[in-house]
Amino acid sequence: MNPPRTLRRRLTGLLLALVLLPAASGCGDDGPEAAEGGDRAVTFGYIADYSGAAALAVADRQGLWDEAGIEPELKVFTNGPLQVQALDGGDLDFGYLGPGALWMPASGRAAIVAVNMLGHADRVIARPDTGITGPADLKGKKVAVPEGTSGEMILNLALREAGLAPDDVEKVRMDPSTVVTAFSSGQVEAAAIWYPLVDTIKAKVPDLVEVSSTTDYYPEQTFPNVFVARPQIAEEDPELAREVTGVLKAAGDWIAAHPEESEKVTAEFLDLPPEQLAGSTEHVEVLTSAKLTKLTEDGTVAGWFDELAGLFEEMGTLPEPGKAEDYYLGDLYTSAGKGEHR
After folding, report:
1. Are strands 94-97 and 223-229 parallel, antiparallel or unpaired?
2. Coil/strand/helix, residue 42
3. What are the φ and ψ backbone dihedral angles of 26, each rounded to 5 degrees?
4. Which of 286, 215, 231, 295 shows the shortest CA–CA distance to 257?
5. Of 40, 15, 4, nearest in space to 247 by CA
6. Is residue 73 exposed (0-12), middle (13-18) or buried (19+ Cβ within 10 Å)?
7. Both ends of the chain: CA-CA distance in Å?
8. What is the per-residue pLDDT across 11-53, written as a single tens digit (0 to 9) for each?
9. C-alpha separations of 75 from 44, 48, 188, 331 in Å
10. DSSP E strand boundaries for 195-334
11. Would you state the pLDDT for residue 245?
């Protein structure tokens, strides 16, 4: 790892503000400015878990930012909507969104520049003493679910499969950690949640029933997490957007070729014990840039986003879903990384 960059990334006080002030002031209407040494400076948001940080960790370790002539200021967030707010306010240039926040690009608030990973971790689970074995058995049952997350999305897919409406079950809105407690203690009959929290629940309720899985609906329906940009950057500085996207594509290809090593690299990046992220790749699918290019060109990726937009409309979070072609920059993705790096 390049020590100077790692130190810059981890500084949080006055020194960081002084060093990166030109980049921060360049995130307004005039776009990112050049950093010290002539590199282009960009601000990039991420979430401190495997999916949310792996590509940035690998880009740092492999020197991909240096190769592209880009100096990133990385900012950690707890969720995707906060990053979209920062994009709206000009405090971020690029960011990372999980599937539960994809209604925000679909509403025009961000532009998707790349698919990161496909999530296969979400489950609808039931307690063994409830008689629930399939989605149809959820009718009338009390189901714990974190609102506006991929957990709610998998629950709605399961209900749709069974011909049920969202109000055919009693949704109990909880944060993820409370879902674990409520399910384990029998306060609810079912839950919509994801791994590794399902593993935590299984330690207390080992004979729980997995009613529905993300993989049940793949490949027609999938839960991608993505990288996004401020629409102004994509429109006004497409070269920079391609350069950043090229870095993300190269990082994704490295992860696809070295999944277990990528867990260790990400743990180091996040200052976590390696065992904390061990096995993270079991519930995600990392597609190579060649595969994603093919799926972009044949319309598959846009189809994923359109299907999700329909799901968000059913959930009431996206009253008027747009078409993926309006917010997924597929042409930019397919052209990125073709020699524009310095």
Report:
1. antiparallel
2. strand
3. -90, 10
4. 286
5. 40
6. buried
7. 20
8. 333 222 323 333 333 333 444 555 555 689 999 999 999 999 9
9. 6, 10, 37, 27
10. 209-213, 223-229, 284-285
11. 98
Number of H helices, E strands in the chain: 16, 11
124 token code pair: 């609808």
For residue 28 the two structure tokens come to 């307004």
Please give the single-letter amino acid code of residue 225. N
Reduced to 3 states, what is the DSSP secondary structure of residue 44? strand
Element (H, E) at 302: helix 300-315
What is the identity of the amino acid at 138? L
Q: What would the two tokens of residue 98 be? A: 């999980």
Identify the DSSP state of 59.
H
Residue 307: how many CB atoms within 10 A of its CB? 16
Q: How far apart are alpha carbons 184 and 189 in whole angstroms?
A: 10
CATH numbers and ranges of domains, the chain: 3-119+222-335 (3.40.190.10), 122-217 (3.40.190.10)
Determine how β-strand 190-194 pairs with β-strand 122-126.
Answer: antiparallel
Residue that has been written with the tokens 């008027």 in this structure = 320
Closest CA to 146 of 97, 200, 101, 93: 101
The strand pairing partners of 145, in sequence order, are: 173
Distance (Å, rounded) from C-alpha 338 to C-alpha 11? 33
Q: What is the pLDDT of residues 297-336, one digit of tens each?
A: 999 999 999 999 988 988 888 888 789 999 999 999 999 9
At residue 25, the pLDDT reads 31
Q: Is the dihedral of CA 81, 213, 226, 314 positive or negative?
A: negative
